[in-house]
Amino acid sequence: MAESSPKRRETISVDKPPLLKRMQEYAVDVTLDPDTAHPELILSDNGKQVKTGDFKHDVPDYPERFDACHCVLGKEGFSSGRFYFEVQVKGKTKWDLGVARESSNRKGPLTLTPAKGYWTVWLRNENEYKAGAGPAVCLTLKVKPQKVGVFVDYEEGLVSFYDVESSSHIYSFTAQSFNGKLYPYFGASLNYNGKNSAPLIITPVNYIK
Known about the structure:
Radius of gyration: 16 Å
Order of helices and strands: HEEEEEEEEEEEEE
Structural class: mainly beta
Strand content: 25-35%
Number of helices: 1
Number of strands: 13
Distance between the termini: 23 Å
Strand order of the largest sheet: 1-2-13-4-9-10-11
Shape: globular
Largest sheet: 7 strands, antiparallel
């Protein structure tokens, strides 16, 4: 999402209010790309929800399709400006969210680090939150996020994550160097016999007043 070119580009702080409200101004419409989805993933007809099923679907093995990790990318890629989207994670015990570089590897096990083209935060074991900074950074959160906001400033090399309901900052990757397009990234993980069967849902942004 390219923005206009003012004479002076405002720098957005990641840790000062009203941070989330300002990020939401850059909300974009994200739709899941079925050509990138792991064969066991089930996407909703509108491309806004993803969950893991019990068997692999008979789908073409495109180079861009994840074949080992239960992940999918958004259709829209961004190579400039700022963009923001929100994802409901309520009811899940394991998930990954963030952005991925267009040239990132999709085959085999993934290493979710910036060096490998992934800028992500994760939930593991129901209440263990980490950022894939390489090595992973353990995150101490006061409340369990139900909806996560993801903000990217391409030129500033910034990827930030927020708990939408509490308007609190979760983690930021700063001073990153991007090249090529970045795509929204969603990891639904296994469903663990229904324990993690809730979908990841791309939700409309309800702007903070």
